[in-house]
Amino acid sequence: MNSKQTPEEKRRLEKVINRSYDVIEKSDYISRDLSWLKFDERVLDQARDPRRNIFDRLKFLAITASNLDEFFSIRVGSLYNYIDYGKERSDYSGLREIPFKKTLMAAAQAFVQEKQRLYSEDIVPLCTENGFRIIKIGDLYNEELEKVTDYFSRTIYPMLTPMVFDQTHTFPSLLAKTLIFGVVTRIPNNEVDFVKTDGKGDSRKISFVQIPQNLKRFFVFERDEEVVFFPIEEIIRHEIWKLYKNVEIDSIALFRITRNGDFDVVEHEDSETDFIDEIKKKIKDRRLGRVTRVEIECDCSEWMLEMMMKRWKLEKDGIFFSNNLIDFTAFWQIIKHPEFKSKLQVQHAPVPPLGLTSMKQDDIFETMKQGDILLHHPYNNFEPVLQLLEQAAEDPHVLAIKITLYRISKNSRIADALLHAAENGKHVSVLFEVKARFDEENNIREALRLQNAGCFVIYGIPGLKTHTKLLQVIRNEGNKVVSYAHLSSGNYNEDTAKLYTDIGLLTTDDVITRDISEFFNVITGHSQPHSYKHLITAPREMRNKLVDMIRQEAKNAKAGLASGICIKINSLQDKITIDELYKASQAGVPIQLIVRGICCIRPQRKGLSDNITVRSIVGEFLEHTRIYYFHNNGDPKIYGGSADVMVRSFDRRIESLFEIVSKHVKQQAIHLLKWNLMDNVNTYEMQEDGSYRRCVNPEDFDVVPFDIHKEFFHVTIEDVMTAKIFDKATAPAPVEYESMS
Length: 741
Known about the structure:
This protein is α/β, with parallel strands linked by helices.
């Protein structure tokens, strides 16, 4: 709870929260937003892990900070959209908007306090043991202080602009996620008679000094045996008096605000320009959106804080006090320092896709003709996807390239390949989703670049966000035209492919590629498909198809046939699907869910979900793979793709799931799920009350560790062929696994 609350305020809040948790515990569903915080707690747990070195632990502290920024920008921002406009909202847990907000903010306060405790008590003492320190002004040597002062005078001082707020100056527009000094000044007593006051004889004024975002967070010194990081805000704090002549400084406090970033775009079907302009306007609105959180130093001026709370319509639960550094994303500068970059956990070199002993570097087309290839990133390199595009761009026989883009990397090889393809006269169609949250500006810039090069660019579909991941290359091979395709759970982003676990399927299967052609015609043109053979799409049919397969498993269980469901996704929130999983559990279907983040289903509740288990895997890589497995009486139906079990995925996005039909690739998917269920190093088990319990205590050396973030680099064909899920007697018979070379 907020450390500056009075005892009476704390008692009242405790009563509200206790009543709220009584309601929450009775609900059959877990709160989406509270579940988000539980995920961030699991990320924070990585920073607690004594097996990790100091740099890994700082990395996870930085990640929790970024996650919390998004949480307050999007989830809390969405909540304020209801509260500010008097709209009704009931959380999945059954709570209305006001009591839920108090409960949510109390949970966030507790999380932040634990994060700060962890940093100050556990992390800081380890820094000097590992060759670096974060210091204060009093720790500087004289010659270092001279360098700091000179740096301020030459570089920082010209960039600073104090912005006063008083009767004659409007409240300044302060930037979100930027360090800002709030400075309270007053006129000296002997001059008060000569200046205007507030009418009560108070000559205090507030001014704000924003620290430029293009300055590095730390000024770095190299000492004999250590690297010293001096926060830039401490330089400015020490020198800030130079900005205020002939006034007294009452107080100085550093703070940082988060603004509402949850917005909808009003889309116009008749004008592409209007659509892009609307996106740009919304990006600008986000920069000035409603304040949802203030992080501020504990010794701040109460008078200034009250003024800001009144201005931003915040209660005390939206104020997060800190005795440490504000904004732990600053740790990335330490982690990436040349002295320490090599000390992050060593990454294993990617291995070839299973069964593919070699790839013809000069001909990806010939490689793909040998059979379907499952790519499992980052264990398998992303290079085959890049090779497919880059070779297609230069190949004179390639007629067309079609692709959906959601998030791409800066200096993207994907974008460059598409540009070269267009320049080489190929027809290039790009469905570029410019509404990808927080990537809008980069996507608009890249989309315009592609369009100017001659690509046919579609800026998404009105009312929907295009989230599907599909690539198709059409090639004239003399007597026939061959379609080469890539379907994926992850973005076409070569940078995140090194950090996120995802699957991708390279295929020339005629049925699958016909489905993809039909799908592209639907989303780039104006056609309605009759049906797809191996694709399930949203918003047209995905929820219904998944529900049908869940119901079939329930029917099989009731008939005494082998049944089972195993789903690996990022988030589980759709109530309709959750209810069907509850019914299947009650029918006797064993259901194993691997859900990295948000999970609104309540497992292991007697009479409701006895047969449902939920695991979350949080570790070195960000789990991003989506796989849906339905046992189907021993003849499994397995799908991969872009969609989570979310309302937004089923109703407000263009998504696709692709059926895995190749026998050897299907067995690889089964193995992938099996090893996810075997992991005991990165895995947390969800309890009936919504809490999570780590499968293995990091200090428990009696358990043989099985870490999939290491083991997947060493998969053998034997591992794959012996993998089974659910009833061993009805598991699929082993298939001949032919090596492709």
